[in-house]
């Protein structure tokens, strides 16, 4: 089977870091299983404008998965002016709004450390940064976003390569078990006939019985235990699964559906099994199908 170039898992991690001017930044991108593409982000204050770029970059690369993208930044403020200032107007506002409560003795006069925790009191200092400087810095940081997502994509592709090998081995074993079940199904008809005859002898002893009637009973039981239809459907599902795997791309939902179909047919086959050999084949087939379902859930 030719290996597809784009089979992706849904789990992975990407990271990129760098420095521009006095600011260091780190992007981290994590991905886990998800029914659809769910993008969450965590951005520091002042960088909310990156959200559209995050969504655009993620949707360009991925179709499914739960993604968490985060950015952390840090300024080197050694020997520099503080990067925050106290907004005295906001303090005056809070004091004015609470003056009646203070005068009535309902609350104690506020302390400075308490005031500093109020929204809007501490704010970024106005450094009169040139628009060109900020644009250049943001461009560099966003290049880091692309690098982190590229790393995440590469890791998901590596895991996808591993999943391809797992699926290939799984399908080969399922194919082998279908052939074994086909042989066991033929032997099952003879086993049922012999079992019915043996049971009749045990129950009737020396009493004569009609061989034709016995053959009819054996045929009815064999018909109920016939697994040819299940084997044909299993073979058809296997062909579809191999075609999907060879095609690659976002095949996770289709593989998951086929895994459910495999599960249904393997259950029926095991239920109809009338010999130990066919029962054991059915049980092993069910175990392989369970593995298939687990792995399919991690394919984009």
UniProtKB/TrEMBL annotation:
Protein's recorded name: YicC family protein
Protein origin, superkingdom: Bacteria
UniProt entry keywords in alphabetical sequence: Endonuclease, Hydrolase, Nuclease
NCBIfam families in UniProt: YicC/YloC family endoribonuclease
Transmembrane segments: none
Domain Endoribonuclease YicC-like C-terminal residues, every copy: 185-300
Essential cofactor(s): a divalent metal cation
Domain Endoribonuclease YicC-like N-terminal span(s) in chain numbering: 8-163
Family membership noted in the UniProt record: Belongs to the YicC/YloC family.
Pfam families found in the cross-reference section: YicC-like_C, YicC-like_N
InterPro entries (alphabetical): YicC-like_C, YicC-like_N, YicC/YloC-like
């Amino acid at each position: 089977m030719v290996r597809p170039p784009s089979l992706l898992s849904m789990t992975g991690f990407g990271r990129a870091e760098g420095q521009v001017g006095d600011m260091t930044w780190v992007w981290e991108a994590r991905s886990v299983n998800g029914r659809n593409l769910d993008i969450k982000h965590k951005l520091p204050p002042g960088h909310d404008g990156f959200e559209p770029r995050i969504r655009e970059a993620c949707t360009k690369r991925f179709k499914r998965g739960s993604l968490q993208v985060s950015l952390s930044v840090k300024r080197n403020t050694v020997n520099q002016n503080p990067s925050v200032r106290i907004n005295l107007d906001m303090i005056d506002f809070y004091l004015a709004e609470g003056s009646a409560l203070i005068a009535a003795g309902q609350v104690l006069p506020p302390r400075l450390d308490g005031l500093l925790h109020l929204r809007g009191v501490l704010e970024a200092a106005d450094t009169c940064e040139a628009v060109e400087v900020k644009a250049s810095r943001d461009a560099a940081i966003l290049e880091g976003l692309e690098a982190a997502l590229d790393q995440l994509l590469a890791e998901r592709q590596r895991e996808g390569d591993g999943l391809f090998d797992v699926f290939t081995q799984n399908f080969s074993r399922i194919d082998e078990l279908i052939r074994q079940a086909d042989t066991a199904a033929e032997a099952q008809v003879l086993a049922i006939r012999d079992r019915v005859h043996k049971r009749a002898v045990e129950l009737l002893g020396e009493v004569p019985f009609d061989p034709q009637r016995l053959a009819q009973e054996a045929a009815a039981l064999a018909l109920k235990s016939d697994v040819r239809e299940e084997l044909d459907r299993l073979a058809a599902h296997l062909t579809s699964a191999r075609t999907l795997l060879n095609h690659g791309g976002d095949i996770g939902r289709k593989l998951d559906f086929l895994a459910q179909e495999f599960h249904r047919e393997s259950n029926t086959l095991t239920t109809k099994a009338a010999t130990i050999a066919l029962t054991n084949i059915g049980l092993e087939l069910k175990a392989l199908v369970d593995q298939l379902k687990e792995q399919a859930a991690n394919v984009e």
